[in-house]
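Retro notes (design track)

What went well: tokenization of the new backbones is finally stable.
What didn't: we kept losing track of which sequence belonged to which structure.
Fix going forward: every design gets posted as structure first, then sequence, in one message. First example under the new rule, 363 residues:
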């Protein structure tokens, strides 16, 4: 019997040849001046085109969205041209690829913004670190976004989506997790606004749905995916309270009205068994609430991936580190072959070492 992970699936308008998804992975290989994808990116993603669907690394929707060195954007003509090489390379190998749209919000530093403070829902320092050209630096108290800046940012996501289509992507994924801008709006500890974008659960979630509505002016909703991390705790200043899970329950239920390509959820990054406001099994908790395609992520292997699909807790599984060191991961799953170990010291370095030099079974 064919493994569940290797069966085809339809993600809205995106037909995937299997359910082994390449998770979005920051790899810090972009040209740091123009912040664009290069020929090296094209090689890297093409090597991994045995995936049913590739989700690119987070890509900034505007210059104000930047918070990490050597990361690509999707807001300039040069960046569109860089990404065209990537999408063409992946499509040549018969896979599908979406770009993850990214705005880090307060997880940034003035070094990226000509001395100006990063933008965020509220002026609250996450007390974290930003990866700048001069190394890691402590975050500062960000600038609270004005209503005009919120609307400009919403427009940035629309433009980035239009650019994604020009670049040949099959769709987009909104990076609304991991403590970045959208997550900062969701969380009561990072959002102290008293206007239409803060206060109640509905108002804290509004920014996301306003962005979704705007992106739909550039592409159908069945080419849009969305990533959430409901149980992020103790990272990037994120904290949990009695409204944390109800907030994500509200968001997930409302997403049912959007006919998305998929919803991408992460299992907890840290041990939350002692956290009274969080759940320990994200897929199990949210599966009954969401009626569309559900992708689950974080520390899955072949056996656990097949099991979570067989148990109907998810429709597909996103793999991160395993795809770094095993470019032909679905092939290895099919043959039940040995998996190569990744070299963590090269995750965020530049050049091909630890990026495009992992061999496939055919090499």
């Amino acid at each position: 019997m064919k493994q569940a992970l290797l069966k085809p699936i339809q993600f809205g308008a995106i037909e995937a040849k299997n359910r082994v998804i390449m998770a979005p992975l920051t790899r810090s290989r972009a040209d740091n001046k123009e912040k664009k994808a290069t020929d090296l990116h094209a090689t890297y993603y093409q090597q991994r085109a045995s995936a049913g669907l590739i989700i690119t690394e987070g890509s900034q929707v505007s210059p104000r969205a930047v918070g990490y060195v050597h990361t690509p954007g999707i807001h300039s003509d040069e960046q569109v041209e860089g990404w065209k090489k990537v999408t063409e390379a992946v499509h040549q190998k018969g896979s599908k690829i979406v770009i993850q749209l990214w705005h880090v919000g307060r997880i940034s530093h003035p070094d990226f913004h000509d001395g100006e403070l990063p933008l965020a829902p509220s002026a609250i320092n996450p007390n974290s670190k930003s990866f700048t050209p001069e190394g890691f630096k402590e975050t500062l108290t960000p600038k609270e976004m004005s209503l005009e800046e919120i609307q400009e940012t919403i427009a940035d996501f629309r433009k980035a989506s239009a650019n994604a289509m020009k670049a040949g992507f099959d769709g987009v994924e909104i990076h609304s997790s991991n403590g970045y801008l959208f997550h900062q709006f969701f969380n009561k500890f990072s959002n102290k606004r008293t206007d239409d974008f803060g206060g109640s659960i509905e108002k804290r979630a509004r920014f996301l749905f306003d962005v979704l509505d705007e992106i739909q002016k550039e592409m159908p909703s069945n080419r849009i995916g969305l990533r959430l991390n409901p149980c992020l705790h103790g990272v990037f200043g994120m904290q949990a309270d009695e409204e944390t899970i109800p907030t994500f329950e509200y968001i997930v239920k409302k997403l049912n009205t959007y006919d998305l390509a998929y919803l991408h959820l992460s299992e907890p990054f840290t041990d939350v068994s002692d956290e009274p406001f969080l759940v320990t099994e994200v897929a199990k908790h949210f599966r009954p609430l969401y009626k569309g395609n559900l992708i689950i992520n974080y520390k899955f292997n072949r056996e656990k991936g097949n099991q979570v699909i067989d148990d109907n807790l998810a429709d597909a599984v996103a793999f991160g580190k395993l795809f770094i060191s095993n470019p032909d991961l679905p092939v290895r799953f099919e043959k039940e072959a040995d998996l190569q170990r990744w070299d963590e010291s090269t995750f965020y370095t530049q050049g091909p070492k630890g990026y495009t030099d992992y061999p496939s079974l055919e090499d």
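Added context from the reviewer: Residues 147-166 form the longest helix (20 residues).
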